Amino acid sequence: MLTLLKNARLHAPEPLGLCHLLICDTRIAVIVQAGEPLPASGAAVKTHDLCGRRVIPGLVDPLVHFIGGGGEGGFGTRTAELTLDEARASGVTTLVGALGTDALTRTPANLLGKARELAAGGLTTFCYTGSYQLPPVTLTGSVGSDILYIPEFIGVGEVAISDHRGSQPSAFELARLASEARTAGMLAGKSGIVFIHTGDAPGHLEPLREAARQSAIPLTQFHPTHINRTAELFADGLRFAREGGRIDFTTSTTPELLAAGEVAAHEAVARALEARIPPGAITLSSDANASLPQFDAAGRFVGLKAGRLASLFEVVGACIEHHAVPMEVAIGIASTHTAEALKLNCKGRLAVGNDADLLVLDDDNWRIDEVWALGHCLHRREDHKAG
């Protein structure tokens, strides 16, 4: 199947001007400047004129709780699963699912089944094996075999450090886990990333530094998230990035978390760039459908709200509109650099040979007109008419 998207103001994420994109089945086959001829083809081509609207890569979200999360306040506080309609409308076309605090009533098998449900709906989905605690829960009996034999499993996570809900892993345990995931990833052609939930305990990211010091594992094998959760953790995260690591900011938030000292994700991006952290060392994740719990000073559960997948796209817009972050930088942080960190080579960039995952944006506002994933339009804004 050939689909021609004409007159797209392309951000790949760097601006390429007015272009035509020819999509063959699920991938981008040709990109030419508007006015240049397309290669001849004997096949029928379905054409859409985008009339000069902005087109950006589909976003890549490295932390989504497909099957919900929560439960810190009992069974009545479990958060809901992600719905296909919500996912399709969000602007996120590649999602990585994880377990969290609850690896007892939620399992890797549940996670994999949900990943395949979302994939059947047109999205690209991956998973982490394991959860907050060590030893990790797995589907096949080990982290290594999950990554090696199950296509969707690309790493392990989200493993909790500096958090009272984690298993308080030692540096040695973290290094052993990272070694197993890294080796399996090399054998399978995957990242073998260790995605880390970072709590607000005083140790912050020190367990990861210690694991790297005690082993041959590089800091980049760990990908810590929630780095904007407190001012102190944010400062330590900038130091971690200067030392060669990557950091991830959480886009979902609540007024309570912000009042307690969380740095809003769009502000965190702007401040990190001002501190001369390379954009390639920064990623964003939504933490969608996870619980965003609130605890009092004694560690007692107070309440929670759920993360939102759409927050990723919203934060990219806020970076551009409120902090004058260049559009290609903000988009790259939520697509290109995440794909690079996870070794998803066909994702995060609009280029010939890559998957045809793209967002068509409104002419005047930071909102989505159309979501295309793997060459198919999955969502169109109700008050928007196709070209």
Automatic annotation (TrEMBL):
Coiled coil: none annotated. It is an enzyme of class 3 (hydrolase). One of its GO terms (molecular function) is metal ion binding. One of its GO terms (cellular component) is cytoplasm. Its EC number is 3.4.19.-. Its main location: cytoplasm. Carboxylation allows a single lysine to coordinate two zinc ions. Zn(2+) 1 binds at H65, D287. The active site is at D287. It is found in: Cytoplasm. Residues 55-363 form the Amidohydrolase-related domain. Substrate binds at G70, G71, E72, T101, Y132, R165, R229, S291. Zn(2+) 2 binds at H197, H226. One of its GO terms (biological process) is proteolysis. Gene3D superfamilies: Metal-dependent hydrolases (3.20.20.140), Urease, subunit C, domain 1 (2.30.40.10). Catalyzes the hydrolytic cleavage of a subset of L-isoaspartyl (L-beta-aspartyl) dipeptides. Used to degrade proteins damaged by L-isoaspartyl residues formation. Belongs to the peptidase M38 family. PANTHER family: COLLAPSIN RESPONSE MEDIATOR PROTEIN, HYDRANTOINASE/DIHYDROPYRIMIDINASE FAMILY MEMBER. This is Isoaspartyl dipeptidase. It comes from Halomonas urumqiensis.
